[in-house]
Amino acid sequence: MGQDLQDARRIVVKVGTSTLTHESGKLNFRQIERIVRVLSDLKNADREIILVTSGAIGVGVGKLGLPRRPSDVGGRQAAAAVGQCELMFTYDKLFSEYGQIVSQVLLTRDDIDDKERCHNVVNTFARLLDMGAVPIVNENDTVAVDELIGINFGDNDSLSAIVAKLMKADALVILTDIDGLYTADPHKHPDAKRIPRVEHIDDSVKALAGGVGSSRGTGGMITKISAAEIATGAGIPTVIIAGETPQLLYDLFEGKEAGTIFCAR
């Protein structure tokens, strides 16, 4: 299965809020450190890493001591503004411990839809990679209010696929709270089987996605399948694996089976 990915050099990795935080909404430092260590190691092995991260709103909720994610757009913008600072501070500190330099790239739908701005975005990514930095990407939730009401990128899963497509990545890997696509919801059906390989995304595959994500995030399996559809349509294999075991990335790029791979079309 992983044979398709052994030669992958430019890799976009997306990590979700539920992987980065505890139930309290506060950062799960042990988990983030694991992810950072593996990504740094892969980069040291001469792979280019672009990290698309969720978590700003969730982290902001935790840091502000709010009982739940705000229901109003202004509240979510404020939480994102607080959380983004904490998130980037943490990434910068942990990546620097492994000798890596990080950069922050905040995007909105307008940055992608406008031809000149999109060109500038691609050039910035390219120069950052040339300079050996790890671009860390998030949606600019403090200004991109459309996303906060569900009509912009839809979720950072889709954003990661768009970034992978723009940058002609060799692979997209989505780290989430489940180790792949299953024949049924494994939380409700203990006999559900993980599907190691999806050759083509059709309605039957989408029907396996179930509902939305956790209370801390906005995604769910359906947004990951939608992201896979975007990326595989651009010729980029996409993999969903468990974020709690980021060392599976080693297996993946060594040609071993891990998670669910959606084959490039």
UniProtKB/TrEMBL annotation:
Keywords: Amino-acid biosynthesis, ATP-binding, Cytoplasm, Kinase, Nucleotide-binding, Proline biosynthesis, Transferase. Substrate binds at S54, D141, N156. Catalyzes the transfer of a phosphate group to glutamate to form L-glutamate 5-phosphate. This is Glutamate 5-kinase. It comes from the Bacteria. It catalyses: L-glutamate + ATP = L-glutamyl 5-phosphate + ADP. Its main location: cytoplasm. It is found in: Cytoplasm. InterPro entries: AceGlu_kinase-like_sf, Asp/Glu/Uridylate_kinase, G5K_ProB, Glu/AcGlu_kinase, Glu_5kinase, Glu_5kinase/COase_Synthase, Glutamate_5-kinase_CS. ATP binds at K14, T176, D177, T218, G219, G220, M221, I222, T223, K224. It comes from Solibaculum intestinale. Pathway: Amino-acid biosynthesis; L-proline biosynthesis; L-glutamate 5-semialdehyde from L-glutamate: step 1/2.
